[in-house]
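User: Predict Molybdopterin molybdenumtransferase's structure from this.
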Amino acid sequence: MIPVAEALDHLFSLTPQLGAETVPLVQAVGRVLAEDVTAQRTQPPFAASAMDGYAVHRGEMQIGAQFDVIGEAAAGSGFKGVVGKGQAIRIFTGAPVPEGDFFVVIQEDIDREGDRITIARDPGQGDNIRPAGGDFKIGDVIAAPRLVSPSDIALLASMNISAVPVIRRPDIALISTGDELVMPGETPGPDQIIASNTFGLKALLDQHGALTRILPIARDDVDSLKTAFALAEGADLVVTIGGASVGDHDLVAPVSAELGMERSFYKIAMRPGKPLMAGRMGQAMMVGLPGNPVSAMVCGAIFLVPVVQAMQGLPATAPTRKTARLATPIGANGPREHYMRARVEAGEITVFDNQDSSLLTVLSAANALLVRPVRDPARSAGEEMEFIPL
Ligand SMILES: Nc1nc2c(c(=O)[nH]1)N[C@H]1C(S)=C(S)[C@@H](COP(=O)(O)OP(=O)(O)OC[C@H]3O[C@@H](n4cnc5c(N)ncnc54)[C@H](O)[C@@H]3O)O[C@H]1N2
Ligand code: MOO
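Assistant:
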């Protein structure tokens, strides 16, 4: 058994780097920028009014000063003439401010009679003008790699970038193994259950940019598993679920070995998730996850999500940890790093009583994995502990 951190390092060294593709702007969210993108224009392209009001020459701006309103500047159509001494223009939010040194007085501080205005109240210091290029300038760079957020989409649009270079989505093939499994919606036999792991894992990995395929369930026989591996052809990452332990029907290790899998490691000092294996299989990376539903999902969060991120060129790092104070005491940990299902609320973390690795209700109620190092001593309420948010 190897430590979790060592397993993650092995996984990163197996991780392929994927190529790039260009996608329409609206499809770029959640993808990783493949190359630096440069702004095609300056924003705002002109000095723009930040408020509805009146533009006057800055030097003439004082309480009691009066002006003739000689024209209007609206968003989309600026004032084309010249503003002389003692003159003002009506101006609206987003409108270009005329050339020169102006001050926009908001309309709440103005008294107007016909086309004559008076600055009736103190307009304060701010001139209510957004300078040209105050947001960004032509040629400004958004650097790759970067996970594109909804805010980035707005920024890219504003930069007039309609097609975005991103890393292609990792092609992941998921294979559930076991005679006991049927697909959701099917009618299970008396000794059967519904395959859940592939669905939870697809949801998790696709959330991080993958394009995950759920392959037909492999039965507990060599030919069926070989067929499933053949269907995974072309994937960047092939993930099997179940059949990883030491039972007579646990065929993943022998069959993958027969198909040429060069194993990097097998078994981790981790709870849940001990019988994890990984290696290279032809062009693809292969990971064999344990079948217990919580083990599969926890391994997905701890190992597969970082791998999916690294495949797309993001930094190869373990999931981010935070800290919270223990709400109730917990006993000492054993020889495996323990990822305990827990709930964090208002800065306090409560560990669920039942940590059995089959309990999806507990996993679903959890929003955190409390991380217990190997042989961590008993902990009292109030002690600060590390956790990984789910
Ligand atoms: N003698 C030993 N027995 C076991 C050991 C051990 O060290 N010695 N390790 C245990 C641990 S830890 C785990 S974890 C499991 C992992 O076993 P497998 O990876 O071989 O998984 P299976 O036996 O195929 O399944 C375990 C459990 O999970 C259910 N399962 C499997 N796939 C799915 C799926 N896609 N969706 C939902 N549920 C699934 C399966 O029906 C079993 O109930 O081994 C322990 N045993
Ligand atoms: O370590 Mo197993 O992964 O207990 O469920």
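The two ends are 25 Å apart (CA to CA).
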